[in-house]
């Protein structure tokens, strides 16, 4: 498999109504593992992820993949904070990306059954997806993102507003995906979750990459006062 | 009150005895209306969907115009279609005036803006939910439209039913372009207008009740076929 990484970002900026939301950002994403994007509310975590995935257009700078853009986009997936659920059955929701890619309905549904089983939704295949609970909807969104076996998976606070059990289940699914070779970039403001999952941490502050380090080093001794205060649980504005 | 009762009786006997004239008129009404609604849906639903997802310079103006066209006066539509199809008109050579085809053309013009506007509204709301996912999955424009049309199917059914309601009860335009010719272009509404002008109120009311029954029957059939309510969601 030809990898789409490294991702090389140089001076990328997102502006909205004349105001800089994110940037200029310089970062490189390579290798394996889980990169956790942390920072206070409004730091630009969601916008950064959306910019990297191509949902938000950057103003200035560059975002370069190791492969052509179309190929890179096809090899990545995004899970949103509020799961987007199609007005279809659970099975058809999970099968949707494959059918969009041209796979026959029967084959796509067979793959969907495998992934539904993997995320614990095997018993709900024929159920209308809109009727699922919040945690189940997020698991469905994960299965739908993973069914194409992406090389890179972006997650925007996927466990926000979920209870402990759902959070643990989703972390388990992500650990399995990582073991299968998917590179994960996840935004969260849950410090416990970041400690459990992170290989490395990007700390965003006021739209910029304020600090980036290996997870063990970041949590043991953050280099900036803002990151230290954030980890301590102080209010960082 | 007496006339309404007589109308109900007339409707009852017309239906029970399967009056040949009633059957013919009803079938023609259905033929013209269903054809017009089918064509209007084929044009209006993709158009409404396209307007919901496509951004272009005069989009707002086009949507406003489409909404305004929902109130298009049928008589004016009939007059314009008449002039286009009359012997001296640009399409006179087609010899379509005073035929069911002319009536279908007029109804398509009346119904399409209604179907397109309701479709646009339904698809726009769904698009705001689906936008990020469909962009993230690199869905092509065609795939986006298809997904939205499929998932908004129940709201689109309402658009089709609204179009059917407008078309089946339409009289002004089809009277002008169809001519209300017996055994050729007479439909329920034009027959009602004719019987009323002749003072034959009972028969006119009877035909009116048949018309209402038809509209209700089509609505029930559509809901039954699309399994709305049974699956718990609209």
Verbal overview:
The complex is a heterodimer of chains A (237) and B (234). Chain A has 237 residues and is of the alpha/beta class. Chain A has 2 domains: 7-84 and 150-232, P-loop containing nucleotide triphosphate hydrolases (Rossmann fold); 86-131, no CATH class. Chain A contains 9 helices and 9 strands. Chain A has helices at 45-53, 69-74, 90-100, 105-118, 134-146, 164-179, 191-197, 215-220, 225-232; strands spanning 7-16, 19-29, 34-38, 62-64, 76-79, 152-156, 183-187, 200-205, 208-214. In chain A, strand 8 and strand 9 (208-214) form a beta hairpin. The N and C termini of chain A lie far apart (43 Å). Chain B has 234 residues and is mostly helical. Chain B has a domain at 31-179: MetI-like (MetI-like fold), CATH 1.10.3720. Chain B is 76% helix and 0% strand. Chain B has helices spanning 2-16, 20-53, 59-69, 74-85, 100-136, 141-151, 153-168, 172-178, 188-197, 201-226. The longest helix of chain B is centred in the middle third of the chain and has 37 residues, at 100-136. Chain B is globular and about 65 Å long. The chains are: A alpha/beta (237), B mainly alpha (234). The A-B interface holds A 53-55, 70, 73-74, 77-78, 80, 84, 86-88, 96-97, 100, 128, 130-131 and B 126, 129-130, 132-133, 135-139, 143, 147, 151-152, 231-233.
Based on Cα principal axes, name the global outline of chain B.
globular
Helical segment tally of chain A?
9
Specify the overall morphology of chain A: globular
Largest interface: A-B, 19 and 17 residues
Classify the helix fraction of chain A into a percent range: 25-40%
N- and C-termini, Cα separation of chain A: 43 Å
């Amino acid at each position: 498999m030809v990898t789409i990484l490294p991702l090389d970002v140089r001076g990328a900026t997102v502006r909205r109504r004349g105001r800089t939301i994110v940037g200029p950002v310089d970062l490189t994403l390579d290798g394996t593992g889980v990169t956790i994007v942390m920072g206070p509310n409004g730091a630009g975590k969601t916008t950064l992820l959306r910019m990297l995935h191509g949902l938000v257009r950057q103003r200035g700078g560059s975002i370069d993949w190791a492969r052509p853009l179309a190929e890179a986009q096809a090899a990545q997936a995004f899970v949103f904070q509020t799961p987007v659920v199609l007005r279809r059955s659970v099975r058809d929701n999970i099968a949707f990306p494959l059918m969009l890619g041209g796979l026959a309905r029967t084959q796509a549904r067979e793959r969907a059954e495998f992934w539904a089983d993997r995320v614990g939704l095997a018993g709900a295949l024929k159920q209308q997806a809109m009727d699922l609970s919040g945690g189940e909807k997020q698991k469905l969104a994960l299965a739908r993102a993973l069914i194409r076996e992406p090389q890179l998976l972006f997650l925007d606070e996927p466990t926000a507003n979920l209870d402990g059990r759902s959070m643990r289940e989703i972390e388990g699914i992500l650990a399995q995906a990582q073991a299968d070779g998917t590179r994960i970039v996840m935004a969260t403001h849950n410090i416990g979750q970041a400690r459990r999952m992170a290989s490395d941490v990007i700390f965003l502050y006021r739209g910029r990459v304020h600090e980036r380090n290996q997870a063990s080093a970041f949590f043991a001794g953050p280099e900036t006062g803002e990151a230290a205060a954030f980890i301590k649980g102080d209010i960082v504005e | 009150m007496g006339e309404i009762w007589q109308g109900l009786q007339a409707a009852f006997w017309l239906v029970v005895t399967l009056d040949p004239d009633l059957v013919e008129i009803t079938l023609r009404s259905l033929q013209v209306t269903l054809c017009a609604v089918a064509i209007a849906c084929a044009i209006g639903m993709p158009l409404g969907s396209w307007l919901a997802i496509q951004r272009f310079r005069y989009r707002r103006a086009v949507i406003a115009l489409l909404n305004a066209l929902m109130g298009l006066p049928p008589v004016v539509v009939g007059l314009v279609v008449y002039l286009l199809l009359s012997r001296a008109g640009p399409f006179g050579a087609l010899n379509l005036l005073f035929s069911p085809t002319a009536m279908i053309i007029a109804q398509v013009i009346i119904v399409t803006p209604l179907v397109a506007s309701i479709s646009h509204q339904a698809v726009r709301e769904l698009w705001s939910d689906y936008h990020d996912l469909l962009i993230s999955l690199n869905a092509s424009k065609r795939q986006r439209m298809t997904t939205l049309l499929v998932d908004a199917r129940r709201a689109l059914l309402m658009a089709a039913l609204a179009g059917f309601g407008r078309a089946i009860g339409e009289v002004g335009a089809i009277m002008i372009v169809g001519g209300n010719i017996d055994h050729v272009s007479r439909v329920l509404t034009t027959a009602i207008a004719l019987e009323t002008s002749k003072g034959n109120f009972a028969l006119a009311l009877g035909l009116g009740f048949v018309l209402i029954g038809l509209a209700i029957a089509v609505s029930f059939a559509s809901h039954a076929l699309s399994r709305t309510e049974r699956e718990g969601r609209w």
